[in-house]
Design brief:
There is one protein chain. By secondary structure, this protein is of the alpha/beta class. The chain contains 16 helices and 20 strands. A hairpin with a 2-residue loop joins strand 15 and strand 16 (about 330).
Length: about 475
């Protein structure tokens, strides 16, 4: 369905928008500008504002009485497979979303990026590459890390490009896929929403399940559990691994102190020197490589790609350097809400003593791997209070007893203000060259609003303590 058909399908329909969150702040006024009357449902009476053509329906249960609508725009936070939503589907009510409508309206190519971690980093780096080296049109970055696509949808032209970060919540019920689909590694996450890992993974696979034969899929080939993505490919596929050379793929080799990306396509082999990159860690190659492949696809020169990779500093709360004080470096990786992401953060500092901050609320993921990594790599581990922190402490002590060579010190009992208390506990153990790493391996909702709030409180505490 093209943009004209999509709009025509809404004419004369009773349109409901469930939840006036971030995804709908631009969608709702856009719909009214097209001449549609819209009913917005939300639990919070404070969200109402003066938008002509909008009826505000404030109620505790926004999923009740859905049959008063013909078309419903679902907020990503509302599971598509919720019983009330599925009942509406059975009654013939059209369930759509901001993302679905944007795909139908966009006159240009969309590059979609999904995965458990690294979506924002990959999408942002790619947008920098394209802005610097794509010459046919403009580049737009949209999604959680960019701007709402309905703030610029009317400005798009055929030769423009949109880099769109896509979550599993948005992809669950998609019936279209981007022209270039980037699939980063997928690990168990958001299980409170999807219930099972297979359901979560299936939602992610949707990013490329509806591609055309002429479209491109760029898929992480480092892990065996990415097999469902390769199985779903409809068009051309390029894979990437950290250091394993393959055909139709990208990888990195270290040659006499130089870090070089190699890209093999057809009969050609391209090399791109990224020595001196600021974005730390071997794991970040899994963000750099897919961005590189997509940029090359759109004609960006290797020189421009190298320039942007080397200069890119990363994003807030994603293994970002807060500062170095008395030879000790402090890193904010509050986005690390899974055990896997915390482990790769520790691996980013080979040979350096690490003081890790771990703990909070899990989604039931096993913490054995992050405990083993901490015991092997950390001088101290400070526990952040949270629902599952007692279980983490118990596992840590049990595992430490089994290791005769364990020298990692466990620091517990942090009180509010939490970050200030933890830094006070760590301070006596610091030596020049050490790393203090906030990479919690858990969610943050027990004592913090979200991962951003947790990271901001850590940054504030560090600067208050160490800056004059």
């Amino acid at each position: 369905m093209n943009g004209t058909s999509a709009l025509q399908a809404l004419r004369g329909k009773r349109i409901g928008v469930l939840g006036y969150g971030v995804n709908h702040h631009h969608l709702v006024p856009w719909l009214t500008r097209q001449g549609f009357s819209v009913t917005v449902r939300d639990k919070n009476e404070k969200v109402t504002s003066e938008i002509e053509g909008v009826t505000w329906d404030i109620r505790a249960d926004i999923l009740s009485d859905l049959d008063q609508f013909d078309v419903i725009f679902r907020s990503p936070s509302i599971p598509y497979y919720d019983a009330a939503i599925q009942k509406a589907v059975q009654k013939g009510i059209v369930i759509t979303s901001q993302t679905k409508l944007f795909f139908q309206l966009a006159p240009c190519e969309i590059i979609g990026v999904t995965g458990s971690k690294g979506k924002g980093t990959t999408a942002t780096l790619l947008s920098h590459m394209l802005t610097a080296g794509y010459t046919k049109g403009k580049t737009y970055l949209a999604g959680n890390i960019g701007v709402d696509p309905f703030s610029f949808v009317d400005d798009l032209e055929e030769d423009d490009l949109v880099v769109l970060e896509l979550s599993s919540f948005q992809l669950t019920d998609m019936h279209m896929s981007p022209h270039v689909a980037i699939a980063l590694h997928v690990v168990p996450e958001h299980l409170e929403h999807h219930k099972t890992f297979s359901a979560y993974q299936a939602a992610k696979v949707n990013i490329l399940a509806h591609q055309r034969p002429t479209d491109l899929a760029i898929v992480n080939g480092e892990y065996a559990d990415m097999a469902p993505f390769f199985a779903a490919v409809q068009g051309r596929v390029l894979r990437y691994t950290r250091h394993i050379p393959q055909r139709e793929a990208a990888w990195v080799e270290n040659l006499d102190g130089q870090e070089v990306i190699f890209v093999q396509q057809g009969n050609g082999l391209e090399s791109i020197d990224i020595t001196g990159r600021v974005l730390l860690g071997d794991h970040n190659l899994e963000n750099i490589l897919p961005a590189t492949l997509a940029a090359l696809h759109y004609g960006v020169s290797p020189a421009r790609i190298a320039e942007k990779v080397v200069a890119f500093k990363g994003l807030e709360h994603r293994l970002s350097l807060v500062g170095t004080y008395n030879g000790v470096s402090f890193y904010d990786d509050s986005i690390a809400t899974t055990p896997e992401s915390a482990v790769v953060a520790m691996e980013a500092f080979p040979g350096r003593r690490i003081h890790a901050l771990l703990g909070g609320k899990t989604e039931g993921q096993p913490l054995d791997a992050v405990v083993r990594a901490a015991l092997e790599r950390c001088a101290t581990v400070s526990l952040i209070p949270g629902k599952d922190t007692p279980a983490l402490e118990k596992l840590f002590r049990k595992t430490a007893k089994q290791r005769r060579d364990c020298e990692c010190l466990l620091l517990t009992g942090a009180k509010e203000p939490i970050m200030e208390t933890i830094l006070s506990g760590i301070h006596p153990h610091l030596k020049p060259g050490d790393v203090v790493l906030l990479s919690p391996a858990t969610k943050s909702f027990d004592f913090f609003k979200d991962y951003k709030d947790r990271g901001e409180q850590f940054v504030k505490a560090v600067r208050n303590r160490y800056e004059p």
